[in-house]
Write a structure and sequence with these properties.
283 residues, 15 helices, 2 domains
């Protein structure tokens, strides 16, 4: 490798290290802020363990309609017992010293990461900014805003909609002689991993918008690859052991790809103006 190529490569590594250091410092500060409400976050992700979720309310509404329109069916399947079933008091358990402390650290770290997302995305933008045109650099505020909002939407979509489904499905296997006993590490790690996955999945349209505006991808490139996107979604989601989790990851992932295809069609780069084609100043 020639010296001319080595020097820019080293400069890129130095710049990358600089951006990563800023990101790490920001996450540590965010973790310190999030530590104050980490216990509240733990209680929030524990809520589905009671069995009282939005699914319970939907079930009650459906059973009420069944009782009204088909009372014989309602009585035959003893649906009243399900509606009036008492909430069970389930708690998380730990079996190793300091295990709850390390889980509190993990929750605080992810929450702190979410708090400082604008800084994280801004540092990523600064890293790629030298290779952008003047017109492309104007997209910094929309990019940071959209990327932050979509990540938070993905995380909240998982916590509010998907997480109760997963836990409710797991609890449905409880029977005489078979009771749940959730370990705090397995429970929290599983939840945090999926929060991160869903946040990143919802970033796909934003990334596509960015690449489409830069002219790197377009609708004609993405549309014919839907079958490969479906396959990739299945492969990525297959790393999770159970079938339910696999599908709740695969379906949103493919839907985000489908949205990305239409984002590329609507917002893709048309004809670049002369001003946009001029290289901008170094940020």
């Amino acid at each position: 490798m020639s010296e001319e190529k080595v020097v820019p490569f080293i400069e890129h590594l130095v710049e990358l290290r600089k951006r990563l250091v800023v990101i790490v410092i920001a996450v540590v500060v965010g973790m310190g802020v999030a530590w104050n409400f980490s216990n509240d976050l733990l209680k929030f992700i524990e809520k589905p363990l009671t069995g009282a979720t939005y699914l319970t309310e939907i079930k009650k509404t459906v059973y009420a309609k069944v009782k009204e329109r088909a009372p014989a069916l309602y009585a035959h399947y003893k649906l009243e017992q399900e509606i009036n079933a008492p909430q069970k008091h389930r708690v998380l358990n730990y079996s190793a010293p300091l295990e709850p402390f390390f889980m509190q650290c993990k929750i605080s770290m992810l929450a702190g990461f979410v708090i400082v997302l604008p800084i994280v995305f801004y540092q990523l933008w600064l890293f790629i900014a030298p290779g952008l045109t003047r017109g492309e650099r104007r997209m910094v505020i929309p990019f940071i805003t959209a990327a932050t909002v979509t990540f938070c939407i993905g995380a909240m979509f998982f916590l509010i909609i998907i997480w109760p489904v997963i836990i409710n499905f797991s609890l449905s296997y409880e029977a005489e002689g078979l009771q749940s006993w959730f370990n705090i590490s397995a429970y929290v790690n599983f939840c945090l991993r999926l929060i991160l996955i869903f946040g990143l999945i919802f970033e796909l349209p934003v990334l596509t918008l960015l690449l489409a505006r830069f002219g790197i991808v377009n609708y004609q490139f993405l549309a014919p690859k839907r079958k490969y996107a479906l396959l990739a979604s299945a492969v990525v989601s297959a790393f999770h052991a159970d079938l339910i989790t696999m599908f709740v990851i695969m379906i949103p992932m493919y839907l985000m790809y489908e949205i990305s295809v239409w984002v590329a069609l609507i917002f893709g780069k048309k004809k670049a103006s002369i001003e946009d084609q001029l290289p901008g100043e170094t940020a």
